[in-house]
Here is the input.
Amino acid sequence: MAKLLIIDNQRGVRNVLKEKLQFEGYETEAVENTEQAASLAENPDFDVVIIDEKAFNGLSSPEALPPSAAVIVTCENPSLDSALDAMRKGCFDLIRKPIDMNELLASLKRATSDASDNPDCPVPVRKNTATRAKVRKQAAGKVENIIGNSRQITHVKSLIDKVAPSDARVLITGPNGTGKELVAHWLHEKSERRDAPFVEVNCAAIPSELIESELFGHEKGAFTSAVKQRRGKFEQANGGTLFLDEIGDMSHSAQAKVLRALQENRICRVGSDKDVEVDVRIICATNKNLRDEIRLGNFREDLFHRLSVIVITVPPLSDRLEDIPLLVEYFVEKISGEKGINTKHVDERAIEELKSLDWTGNIRELRNVVERLIILSGDQITLEDVRNYALSPAW
Here is the structure.
C-alpha cells in the first residue's frame, strides 16, 4: 500500500487531504511542519511527500525529506519560475491550491507508477523508489517538449541543439503564441548552465519606471517604496540564463543599462555607485520586427547587434499545419492527465477540420481549443464537436 506524508501548516487542509486520501486507500500521515516531519523523515516506507510550497522552500536541503519519496509541492499562486525552481530542487510535481483532488490523484498515480501488482493498492507502489537524483532527472522533463515533425519546427530543434551548448546570445522571434518561451527554456536545459537559475522577465508587463529596479535591483532608500535592498533579475540569474521576453517593449533607459551590462558583465543597482559583477547568458524574445523599431527610433541598434548573435524564428501554426495531429494528440493526453480523466479519441475528420481553421492565436489557441473540446465533447471528439465548439463565436 502506498504510504504518504502530508506537510501543511493549515489544519483544515491537512485533515481534508488525509481523510480523502485514506478513503482512496492510501496509508497517510499528516504533520504541521517540517520539524514534526523530522522524526518521520528517516522512515524508508514513505512513497510520496505532499508538502506546502513555503515549507518546501524553508528546507535547508531537500534531502531533509524521506530520501526515497517523490515530492509533490502544493502552491497557492504558482508561476513558471516557482515551478522550475521547485523542479530543480527535486520536486516531482507542483499542484495548485485549492487542491483539485482529481489532479492530485493523477499526480500520485504518476509518482507511484513503477510498481507491484498488489491488488489491494489503489495505485501500484514503486518497486524501486526514485533517489533524489532520479527525481531531479524527472524534473528536467517538466519542460514541455517541442512537438512536431514539420520542416520548419525540425529546423528550430536543430538550431537549439547547435546553439544551446554555447554561451551565444539568442534572439527568438515569432508571433504571439508560437512557443518562443519554450524555445528559451530548451536553450537553457540543453546548455552547460542547466543546473543554474533560469530567470524570466516580461518586459511588456513591467511599467517603464520599474523595469530598471526589476532588472538591476535597488538599494534601500533609492526611492519612496524601497524599504530594503533588493537583488535584480541579473543577480538572481547569476551563473545561469536570463530570459528577456518582449524585449522590444523595453524603455530606452533600460536598454542603455542592459547594453552596458552585456559589454562589461557588471550591473549597478538603482541608488548605488558600486558595480556588481554578473555571469549571465542572455536570451531574448519579441513578436516585433526590431529592425523596424530601430528605424522608428524605439530600439537601440547597438543593443540589437549585441542580442542577435543567433536569431531563431519560431513559425506560426499556419506554416506548420501538418504538425496539428501530433499537437492535438499531445494536448489531449496532457490535459486529460492533469484532470485525471480518460484520454479521449479524436476522430480523423475532426483533425482535418482543425487543420482547416485560421489559427491566429497559434499553439496557445490550439491548446485552449483542445481543452474546450475535452470538456464539452462526449466519449470522443468528433467533427461535429469541432464545428460546434472550436471557435468561440459559434457557441
Observations:
- The CA atoms of residues 233 and 266 lie 13 Å apart.
- Confidence is low (pLDDT under 50) at residues 114-141.
- The chain is about 40% helix and 15% strand.
- The two ends are 46 Å apart (CA to CA).
